Amino acid sequence: MFDLVLGTHNRKKLIELKLMLPEQHYRLQSLSEIPSAIEVEETGATFTENAMLKATEQAKHLGRWVLAEDSGLAVDALGGAPGVYSARYGGVHGDDAANNEKLLAELAGVPPEKRTARYHCEICLSDPSGTPRITAGGTCGGVIRTEPSGSGGFGYDPLFEIREYHRTFAELDLTVKRALSHRSRALRQFLPQLRRLIVHAAATDS
């Protein structure tokens, strides 16, 4: 069984990650379960840079394998904003209501056909020395509604509509979201690489 630290405190992200990383194959811990975990400052200019920072710095500190991700929303009409500032767009980190309110204000008057956007997710796995071993990414396209709808999900999910379903992520159940989301797409790229790494490590140790 492979020991892996999931480098996030976000409970809803943890649910999605754990669904894709079944515990019969991986021994998983979150940062909230590790009192000695540190807060890594997200100073990167891209999602990839932030994912690598969060994985490598935490791994070096804990001396363990760490999987970290950085994700957010890029809106075409706003030149890619909020981007890496998605979680703190409204001023306070993790204030979903403020972030959504600011996004709607910034898009006031923008017609539906120009409200296109993409969720991005970048994942990095670092070994205990702080060396990145795997990176993977995924995106999911949609449009930003003029008002929130749905009570599921988190972040910008109540505003992010999947065109094919005519529903927001917050209106879709977790099974459907899992099939479509940027995080799931990144994990589907990541998992085969992780399995190869585990097999190689086991062969090297034997």
Give a concise summary.
With 206 residues, the protein is an alpha/beta fold. It is built from five helices and seven strands.
Overview of the structural elements:
With 206 residues, the chain is of the alpha/beta class. The protein has five helices and seven strands; from the N terminus they run βαβαβαββββαα. The protein has helices at 11-20, 47-62, 96-106, 174-180, 182-205; strands spanning 2-6, 26-30, 66-75, 116-126, 132-144, 160-162, 167-168. α4 (174-180) packs across α5. Pfam families: Ham1p_like. Mg(2+) binds at residues 41, 70.
List the helices and strands and how they pair.
Elements: E1 2-6, H1 11-20, E2 26-30, H2 47-62, E3 66-75, H3 96-106, E4 116-126, E5 132-144, E6 160-162, E7 167-168, H4 174-180, H5 182-205
Parallel strand pairs: 1-2, 1-3
Antiparallel strand pairs: 3-4, 4-5, 5-6, 6-7
Helix pairs in contact: 4-5
Q: What brief labels describe this structure?
A:
24% strand; 7 strands; alpha/beta; globular; single chain; seven-stranded mixed β-sheet; Maf protein; 206 residues; 5 helices
